[in-house]
Write a structure and sequence with these properties.
Blueprint (H helix, E strand, L loop, with lengths): L12 E3 L6 E3 L7 E2 L6 E2 L6 H21 L3 E5 L2 E5 L1 H10 L3 H30 L6 H14 L5 H12 L6 E5 L1 H19 L3 H11 L1
Antiparallel strand pairs: 1-2, 3-4, 5-6, 5-7
């Protein structure tokens, strides 16, 4: 495997986590600050693995009530049944709205579960100091960041429907407690992906070759 003759960390360089300015860390100083924004400078995100693990575990726990509790209740002529994420998808399918059902299924099931699975895989690969395909794992992390925001589609959909459908006794849509848990899952996973430092994937290789 080809590698650069000198890495940024070996050269004493670090990127500011706030403004992304690359600076040279002073020799013999445990703490350094960015000359542009004065934020603390670290070669790697502090406690990246432990913070990411904590957020991932929290997201997994929150995802359980997000699927058990109803996300909204559709009332027609004064009567209606609460709908969970899965029952909402099934209702859309039975109503013939396949495209919308597919969007909700991907945004509410595939993306959150896939994001959590990828984060757990990356965390385990770093923990066990895996050498397998570091470039592919880095690309996987970038894709996770790119598509992770699509999880909010379900929350936005409920918000729009609640705002638009308000016909009094004829038809109303009310949000359920499940949408709060689901929103918490989305936010927690976003923070988890931000807490993870993908440079840790390459550190084990650099340490071994160095």
């Amino acid at each position: 495997m080809s590698r650069p003759t000198l890495t940024a960390r070996q050269a004493g360089l670090a990127s500011c986590h706030t403004c992304h300015l690359v600076v040279k860390k002073p020799q013999g100083h445990d703490k350094a600050h960015c000359p542009r924004c004065h934020s603390p400078i670290h070669s790697r995100k502090v406690d990246s693995l432990s913070r990411t693990w904590a957020l991932v575990v929290a997201a997994v726990i929150l995802y359980i009530p997000a699927n058990l509790y109803p996300v909204m209740t559709v009332s027609k002529l004064g009567s209606g049944d609460p709908s969970t994420i899965i029952s909402g998808v099934m209702h859309l399918i039975h109503s013939g709205m396949w495209p919308l059902a597919l969007i909700v299924f991907v945004a509410s099931i595939v993306v959150p579960v896939g994001k959590l699975a990828i984060l757990i895989y990356l965390l385990l690969s770093v923990h066990y100091r895996s050498f397998r395909k570091p470039k592919d794992r880095t690309v996987l992390f970038r894709l996770l960041e790119l598509f992770g925001h699509w999880s909010m589609v379900d929350v936005f959909l409920v918000s729009i429907l609640v705002a638009l459908v308000d016909l009094g006794f004829l038809a109303t849509i009310e949000p359920g407690v499940g949408v709060l848990y689901f929103g918490a899952v989305v936010i927690t996973t976003l923070f988890a992906s931000r807490a993870f430092d993908p440079r840790l994937i390459w550190d084990v290789i650099d340490d071994d070759l160095g």
